[in-house]
Write a structure and sequence with these properties.
Blueprint (H helix, E strand, L loop, with lengths): L11 E3 L8 H10 L4 E8 H5 L16 E6 L3 H14 L3 E6 L4 H5 L10 H14 L3 E7 L7 H14 L4 E5 L10 H4 L7 H10 L4 E5 L5 H9 L4 E4 L1 H5 L1 H5 L2 H4 L10 H7 L1 H9 L4 H5 L12 H11 L7 H15 L4
Parallel strand pairs: 1-2, 1-8, 2-3, 3-4, 4-5, 5-6, 6-7, 7-8
């Protein structure tokens, strides 16, 4: 396997999650880990190319390395969207072949693309011709009545032949009829063994596993078993400290410490002040910070103070400091 610039970073990544992994979330996550690869929410190629919604590409330079996930199924349109993403400064362009939502299906992209690997291959080839940064794919192991044992290796082989060298595989099927997007994240059984077999079958590719992973212990287990990377979604969002604060040491072998949650909160102050000064709302940032002290004394007060106050007019870093005082006070046993 030829090393690509982001292969090391992709040892651990935070999954693209709609309504969650926006620019404010990613800025916070970058403070917690210098190395973990971060992904945008899915941005549709029609929104960029036909709708001119270039504001969706905005991000802070401190987020690097950061990947843009695109949704679409038209090779020409995806190629143009990829060009826009590269021009905006993203380090990677990722094609969504895993999202099972009705809205995504109606646009003929997301998990429904698992049914048409030849189309995905054409999309990847067009995107690769359009940009210099790496083009990657996030997929499922199959959809509906497909047999993953047959579908997944065929999908990977065809898309890899078009030039994709890195895949993130959600180790569940997606049921496009009968299950909601939320149910599709939990109900279809996980098949990690199949993903591990793909590692053996495609030794020249960089393969990451995704789905149901909730700790660095699990992540290290998959890396030790031979996978090239691990992508974590909901736990990285709801309990970011548990996943990201020790990732640089455990996953990337760096001895220098990352920021702890209290340090990260204070490191957010200039960012928050700038956002509010530009007319933004405190809650747009702090909603991603609610899980920072998950399981620690004072965590409930932290969430309550921010949830109740961040929407109020004039709310800013003073409110965040008040919430942080509740956490540090609880740690000292101060009522």
């Amino acid at each position: 396997m030829t090393d690509k610039p982001l292969d090391r970073n992709a040892r651990l990544s935070v999954a693209p999650m709609m309504d969650w992994t926006d620019r404010h979330c990613r800025y916070l996550h970058r403070l917690l880990s210098r190395n973990t690869l971060l992904y945008t929410e899915m941005v549709t190629s029609p929104a960029l190319v036909r709708g001119g919604a270039l504001h969706l590409l905005g991000f802070n330079p401190q987020e690097h390395p950061v990947a843009l996930q695109l949704g679409g199924s038209d090779p020409v349109e995806l190629a143009e969207a990829a060009r826009l993403g590269q021009k905006a400064g993203y380090d990677e362009i990722n094609l969504n072949c895993g999202c099972p939502s009705d809205r995504v299906q109606s646009g003929t992209f997301g998990a429904v693309l698992m049914k048409d690997p030849d189309l995905v291959a054409r999309c990847v080839a067009a995107m690769r011709d359009a940009v210099d940064v790496e083009v990657t794919v996030k997929c499922r192991i199959g959809v509906d009545e497909q047999d993953p044992e047959q579908v997944l290796p065929d999908f990977i082989q065809k898309v890899a032949a078009a030039g994709c060298e890195r895949f993130s595989i959600h180790a569940r099927k997606a049921w496009l009829q009968g299950l909601s997007p939320k149910e599709n994240r939990d109900i279809p059984p996980l098949d990690y063994d199949l993903v591990l077999r793909m590692r053996e079958q495609f030794p020249d590719l960089h393969l990451s596993v995704n789905g149901g992973i909730s700790s660095l212990d699990q992540a290290e287990g998959f890396l030790s078993a031979g996978l090239d990377g691990v992508m974590i979604g909901r736990t990285a969002y709801h309990d970011p400290s548990a996943i990201l604060c020790d990732a640089d040491r455990r996953i990337y072998g760096e001895e220098t410490g990352s920021l702890g949650p209290e340090e990260a909160v204070r490191a957010m102050y200039p960012y928050i002040e700038s956002h509010v000064a530009e007319g933004g709302k405190l809650a747009q940032v702090t909603r991603h910070m609610l899980g920072l002290f998950q399981g620690r004394p004072g965590a409930r007060a932290w969430r309550r103070i921010l949830s109740e106050g961040a929407h109020r007019k004039g709310a800013g870093t003073a409110l965040v400091e008040e919430a942080l005082d509740a956490v540090t006070g609880a740690a000292r046993g101060v009522a």
